[in-house]
């Protein structure tokens, strides 16, 4: 407890008694009676041979239960094990290489490190660090090509995470880093540590090929990343049909079924090869394991097929579609729970272009806006 606040009253013995009060603040000053604590108590670390001077090996974590002026900043010192000055320890507790290590020269070092706090008198603690020198990387990283599909309203893409690169390396201790060529950084970014791809706002309609690479410090490997951006037209929303699937997650649909179902759906509903199928959004049905897929079909001439026509086509081809994935329902209007006949039901669809959903798998990522379906009786 760092302090107390007391209210003290003095009362005399007269009749009637008179009194007054005063507040007394008592501050408890800290004594430097706690030593710094390393977490964990001792460390193990590895460094690959032939890494450049200054390579980060380990970050020390130190805490102190005393108040701030008796705790950090800490002073770190290597007491033993660094007689040849192979290591440096900076003021932030980062252990770095001071030489280029060779596995054939030495495979292990043990350092005794001291941390000293800022109190008076100073308190100290010690930890031991075991550093193993391992052979340099012999395997190249491997990465899975990634294709990303983004659906957005016209000129209204807010940006965000659109996918993640999946890369591995057979060298156990390799740390992978990801880079994007500088000329594309005005539109996209790649997180150097985890491979997440971020699109900035305002992407135009079209196809983007990203020059991404992954490195283990020795080998650098290019990764095929293709981004397709499709901008929705307002007219699409008035001519949509919803297919509802049973027992499938959005990620499973995107990764396992979307490509095959899209091909089968095209064969089922397109009257001419020049017609275009547009998958507008996929979205889980709240409180169930079902999934809604919203789509529209654009004629070669530029207009859109009416939902009634598409539903007739879907109904005729339903058996072929279910060879790919089980369909729960085909919806144009969704008036369940409303006491009105089908012909008296009016449906409106709205898109929230600033609420994007990203369904990412190792090979395919699908980014689409959230949609809302509103129905009401006209009778």
Write structural notes for this entry.
It is a single chain. With 379 residues, the protein is mainly β. The protein has a domain of 98 residues: Sandwich (Immunoglobulin-like). Strands 16-19-20-13-26-25 form a six-stranded mixed sheet. Helix 2 packs across helix 3. The model has no long low-confidence stretch (mean pLDDT 90).
What is the mean pLDDT?
90
Could you say which overall geometry the principal axes of the C-alpha atoms support? flat
In percent, how much strand structure appears in the residues?
A: over 45%
CATH architecture of the domain at 37-134: Sandwich
What is the straight-line distance between the termini? 70 Å
Structural class: mainly beta
CATH topology call of the domain at 37-134:
Immunoglobulin-like
Q: The biggest beta sheet, please?
A: 6 strands, mixed
Low-confidence stretches: none
Order of SSEs: EEEEEEEEEEEEEEEEEEEEHEHEEHEEE
Say which CATH homologous superfamily of the domain at 37-134 is assigned: Cadherins
Question: How much helix, percentage-wise, in residues?
Answer: 10-25%
Number of strands: 26
Keywords: Calcium, Membrane, Repeat, Transmembrane, Transmembrane helix
Organism: Orthonyx spaldingii (Chowchilla)
Domain Cadherin: 4-38, 39-143, 154-245
GO biological process, one term: homophilic cell adhesion via plasma membrane adhesion molecules
């Amino acid at each position: 407890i760092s302090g107390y606040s007391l209210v003290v009253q003095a009362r005399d013995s007269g009749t009637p008694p008179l009194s007054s009060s005063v507040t007394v603040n008592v501050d408890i000053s800290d004594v430097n009676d706690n030593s710094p604590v390393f977490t964990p108590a001792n460390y193990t670390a590895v460094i690959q041979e032939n890494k450049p001077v200054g390579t980060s090996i380990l970050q020390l974590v130190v805490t102190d239960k005393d108040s701030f002026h008796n705790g950090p900043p800490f002073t770190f010192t290597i007491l033993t094990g660094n007689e040849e000055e192979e290591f440096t320890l900076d003021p932030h507790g980062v252990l770095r290489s001071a030489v280029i290590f060779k596995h054939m020269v030495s495979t292990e070092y043990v350092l005794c490190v001291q941390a000293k706090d800022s109190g008076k008198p100073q308190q100290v603690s010690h930890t031991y660090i075991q550093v193993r020198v391992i052979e340099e990387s012999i395997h190249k990283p491997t990465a899975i090509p990634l294709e990303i599909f983004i659906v957005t309203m016209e000129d209204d893409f807010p940006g965000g995470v659109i996918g993640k690169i999946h890369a591995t390396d057979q060298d156990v201790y390799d740390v992978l880093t990801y880079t994007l060529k500088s000329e594309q950084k005005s539109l996209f970014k790649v997180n150097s540590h985890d491979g997440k791809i971020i699109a900035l706002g305002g992407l135009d309609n079209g196809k983007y090929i990203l020059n991404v690479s992954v490195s283990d410090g020795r080998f650098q490997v290019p990764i095929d990343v293709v981004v397709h951006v499709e901008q929705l037209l307002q007219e699409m929303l008035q001519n949509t049909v919803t297919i509802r699937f049973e027992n499938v997650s959005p990620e499973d649909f995107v990764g396992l079924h979307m490509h095959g179902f899209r091909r089968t759906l095209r064969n089922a509903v397109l009257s001419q090869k020049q017609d275009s199928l547009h998958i507008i959004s996929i979205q889980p049905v709240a409180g169930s394991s079902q999934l809604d897929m919203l789509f529209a079909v654009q004629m070669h001439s530029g207009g859109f097929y009416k939902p009634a026509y598409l539903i007739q086509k879907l109904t005729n081809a339903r058996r072929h579609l279910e060879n790919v994935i089980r369909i729960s329902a085909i919806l144009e209007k969704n008036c369940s729970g409303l006491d009105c006949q089908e012909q008296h039901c009016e449906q409106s669809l709205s898109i929230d272009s600033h609420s994007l959903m990203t369904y990412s798998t190792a090979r395919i990522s699908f980014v689409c806006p959230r949609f809302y379906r509103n129905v009401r009786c006209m009778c």
